[in-house]
Amino acid sequence: MLMGLGAAAIALLLAAGVALDLLLGETPRWHPLVGFGKLANTIERRLNRGGLRFPRGVLAWLLAVVPLTLLAWGATRIPAAGGIALMLHALMLYFCIGLRSLRDHNLPIAAALAAGDLPTARHLTSRIVSRDTANATPADLAKASTESLLENGNDAVFGTLFWFAVAGGPGAVLFRLANTLDAMWGYRNARFLQFGCAAARIDDALNYIPARLTALSYVLLAPTLAGKRLAWRCWRTQAPAWSSPNAGPVMSSGAGALGLALGGAAVYDGETEQRPPLGSGAAAQGADIQRAWQLVARTTALWLAVAAAIAMAISLAGGQHA
Fold first, then answer.
1. What's the rounded Cα separation, in Å, for the pair 203 and 246?
2. What are the sequence ranges of the domains in the chain?
3. Which of 31, 89, 166, 267 could bond 132 through an S-S bridge, CB–CB 3.0 to 4.6 Å?
């Protein structure tokens, strides 16, 4: 296996990283991704100027991601590190994954909507999405939170698990740093159109397989057979209309699995943007935020179970050939 880890070790470390995340959540201060964000901002301010914005963006991505990924790789390759190296893999996964963070940021929105506290719901939603929420209705807020949960199930959770399975802790670090840069620089505006192009395309490449595995997982975990069929149909028919090659499959299949009509109008910078439809059914309500979280949580459990099953199958096959 890559990074010197066997299938059994990968399965155990995946479970350990998820367990640490659910138990501890985000560190209240000195979180590595917060520090990385500050580093990325400094690099961007220094390089995103003048001409040749695209090659400057490539250089910025390399300066931000490669040294830290190599540092993570080197830390796990210390001779005779043994159990310490395994602990480092688990800690890297813990710092990179954001399952509990999704719950902690979204379920309070559902609670505020249930209590009829629209100002609080608007404030909480503004912290997780880039769309305008000052005049958002309860339905707008429920839709925004549900879409965020479905999309970030891949970006903050499943993509990280996938790349950890491929390359251990350093793989998770590489993916999460690249995904963070896409979130910071991957805008199609005057400032980032050229400079952030490399960050956006690299994130698209790293997310291509995880996004489709996530979409397939949402299909499989739809609560009814009709829901599975709807999720599959929405994925195949609606995803191509989305500009993002990865968000489209993930959100369309997730919306179909939940039986919700998402997408459509959203307000950005004071302008209403008509986005392609996602899913089919009723408009999202506050209670659907909880349902979206449960879908993400069940998908996490599915991925851990698959990793354990693969490890067991390899172990049994090895025993038969011994």
1. 10
2. 2-321
3. 267
